[in-house]
Design brief:
It is a single chain. By secondary structure, the chain is mainly alpha-helical. The chain has one domain (3-217). It is built from nine helices and two strands. A two-stranded antiparallel sheet has the order 1-2. Helix 3 runs antiparallel to helix 4 (65-88) and helix 6 (135-153) packs antiparallel against helix 7 (158-176). The radius of gyration is 17 Å and the shape is globular.
Length: 218
């Protein structure tokens, strides 16, 4: 049995679902990436890339081309975020990225991007049903995840609000769809989001205004 076959093998059955290695490891890596983001560690990005690559294997094994495409985009954004944080580390006294609240202009850009992106992706998923089994909620979660990652890459506290909005739809949707294991993962994400939001909020109050890369990235 090669590595790909091992990743596609069932680990256990939980809540009536067969959980395969790639799905479990990808979600665990995603949780680790979020926890590292809370700690403002540069490692959050390579771990997010690893999570995406593992989940690509899970979706490919299930012949879900839409899922593969989404994870490829997530990996691309994670690589950009990795580059962004690599440039901004010197802005913090403890060697981590300085965090701050977004300006109103940035908030408008994030909200507008989320709205337009959700409409575009939802329309795409509706036109091509094979890409998603539940087009509009799936589009909302997917685009919300990308918006959260972009905000995280910029060191914005709003990153956590974006994740919170994703979880508020993801948890009930997973339960309603009978995906209790996925819902459990979303619940763990929710706990990490609330803790991370508190930490970044407090740190932003004592941070130097603006991230180290703001001028270069504008």
């Amino acid at each position: 049995m090669n590595l790909i076959d091992q990743l596609d093998a069932t680990v256990f059955t939980a809540f009536g679902q067969d959980v395969i290695w790639s799905d479990m490891l990808g979600n665990v890596a995603g949780l680790a990436a979020l926890a590292l983001g809370w700690r403002r560690s540069l490692l959050t990005w390579p771990v997010q890339v690893l999570s995406g690559l593992i989940l690509i294997t899970a979706y490919a094994s299930a012949e879900l081309s839409g899922g593969v495409g989404k994870q490829l985009l997530v990996v691309t954004v994670a690589l950009w975020g990795w580059w962004q944080w690599g440039r901004g580390r010197d802005g913090s006294a403890d060697g981590h990225v300085t965090v701050r609240f977004a300006t109103w202009r940035e908030r408008a850009a994030l909200a507008g991007g989320a709205a337009v992106g959700t409409l575009a992706v939802g329309g795409l998923f509706t036109a091509y049903p094979d890409l998603s089994w539940n087009p509009w909620p799936d589009a909302y979660i997917f685009v919300g995840t990308l918006v959260a990652m972009v905000a995280q890459a910029r060191g914005l506290v709003e990153f956590w609000f974006a994740w919170l909005l994703v979880d508020l739809v993801g948890v009930p949707l997973a339960f309603d769809s009978g995906l209790a294991f996925s819902a459990f993962v979303y619940l763990v994400y929710l706990v990490l989001v609330l803790w991370g939001l508190r930490d970044w909020w407090l740190r932003s109050r004592s941070a130097v205004p603006g991230p180290a890369w703001e001028g270069a990235a504008a």
